[in-house]
Amino acid sequence: MERVLTAKGQATRQRIVEGAAGLVRRDGVAAVGLDDIRAVTSTSKSQLFHYFPDGKADLLLAVARYEADQVIEEQLPHLGDLTTWRKWQAWRRRVIQRYAAQRDGCSLSTLTAQLGLPTEERQQIVGDLLDRWLDYLMKGVQALKDSGEIGTDVDVRKSAVTILTAVTGGATMLVATQRIDYLDTALTEALDNLRRPRS
Questions:
Q1: CA-CA distance, 79 to 77, in Å (whole number)?
Q2: Prediction pTM value
C-alpha cells in the first residue's frame, strides 16, 4: 500500500525529485550520485531513504514520472485548448520555442534516453505519456472538425498520431544534431496537412 504523505512530506519529496531531475538533465544519470542529490536538495541521507527506500532506483523512477508530467506541463495551457486554427499555431510556436531553448536538456530526452530505466518500467511511463498527449491532440483535431475549420473527412486519430510523431521524431533529431529545423519542418507540415483538401 502506498504511503500517504503530509503536505510537508509531499513538498520535501517533490523538492528531491525536482533537484534530481535537474542534475540528470545537466550531467546525465551516470554522473549523478545520491550525495550529489542530497547536496543540491539540502536533504539528509535518512530523509532521502525515507522517501525512496530503494535509493537511486526508486528516485529515478520518480524522476521519470516527473519528466513525463513536465512534457505535458510545458505545453499547457496551449495543448489543452486546441479549439481553433489560431490556437493550434500558438501551440506550434510554443513547442518550437521550448525545444529550441532546451535542446538535449528537454524532459522528453531525459525520459527516453538518459534515465536508463528497466525496459518494462520505461515503456509503461512513456506509453502513458504518449496516450495522454495523443488524447489532447485528438480533442484538438476533433474541435477543428466540429467547427468546420478542417474537412469532415479528416481521420482524427491518424492526424493526431502524425502530429505527435512529428514532435517526438523532430525532438529526437534535435538532440542528435542540435538542429531545430527538423522539428519545425515536420510539425509545420503535419499541421498544414490538416487543412489540405482530401481527394
A1: 6
A2: 0.90
Are the beta carbons of 71 and 108 closer than 8 angstroms?
yes
Cβ–Cβ < 8 Å for 16, 59: yes
Q: Are 122 and 78 in contact (CB under 8 A)?
A: no
For 78, other C-beta atoms within 10 Å of its C-beta total 19
Residue 30: which of 152, 113, 136, 153 has the closest Cα? 113
Cell of residue 109, nine digits: 530526452
Radius of gyration of the chain (CA): 19
* pLDDT, tens digit (0-9, with 9 covering 90-100), for 64-80: 999 999 999 999 999 99
Alpha helix positions (H), the chain = 7-27, 34-41, 45-51, 56-73, 85-102, 107-109, 119-147, 156-177, 181-194
Domains of the chain by range and CATH? 7-64 (1.10.10), 66-194 (1.10.357.10)
Specify whether the CB–CB gap between 65 and 39 falls below 8 A.
Answer: no
